[in-house]
Amino acid sequence: MNYTVWTFDEKSPIYIQLAHKLKYGILSGKLLPGENIPPIRSMADMLHLNVNTVARSYRLIKHDNLIFTQGKRNYCVIHFLSH
Q1: Got the DSSP string for 12-77?
Q2: pLDDT over threshold 70, residue 59
Q3: For 11, which DSSP code?
Q4: What are phi and psi of 68, to 5 degrees?
Q5: What is the reported pLDDT for 83?
Q6: How far is Cα 30 from Cα 23, in angstroms, rounded to an integer?
Q7: At a CB cut-off of 8 Å and minimum separation 6, what does 13 contact?
Q8: Which of 41, 46, 34, 37 is nearest to 19 (CA)?
Q9: 80: which DSSP letter?
Q10: pLDDT value at position 82?
Q11: Which pTM value belongs to this model?
Q12: Which residues partner with 77 through β-bridges?
């Protein structure tokens, strides 16, 4: 996924906008189960955002059980089980 094309506006907090973009990427299949997403610091550098903003976004989508951590810095999209 090309994260560098993402833009943000002033209408809502950036961490929420980033969480929505990641969530949409996962639920739409643009980010596949098992796929890694960039570590927090890398994502912050790519998007020119504060590290805390990205960390807050990741916590939101982790809370929604869309990603999990592997080790200290690796974030991975969760495998969804079909019913």
Answers
A1: S-HHHHHHHHHHHHHHTTSS-TT-EE--HHHHHHHHT--HHHHHHHHHHHHHTTSEEEETTTEEEE
A2: yes
A3: S
A4: -140, 165
A5: 40
A6: 10
A7: none
A8: 37
A9: P
A10: 47
A11: 0.90
A12: 67
d(CA 27, CA 30): 8
Rounded average pLDDT over 8-28: 96
CA distance 54 to 17: 10
- Give the position of tokens 């809502």: 12
As a whole number of angstroms, the distance between CA 73 and CA 83 comes to 31
Confidence check: pLDDT of 19 > 90: yes
Cα 60 to Cα 3: distance, rounded to the nearest angstrom: 18
Q: Distance (Å, rounded) from C-alpha 27 to C-alpha 10? A: 25
| Token couple for 44 | 């912050």
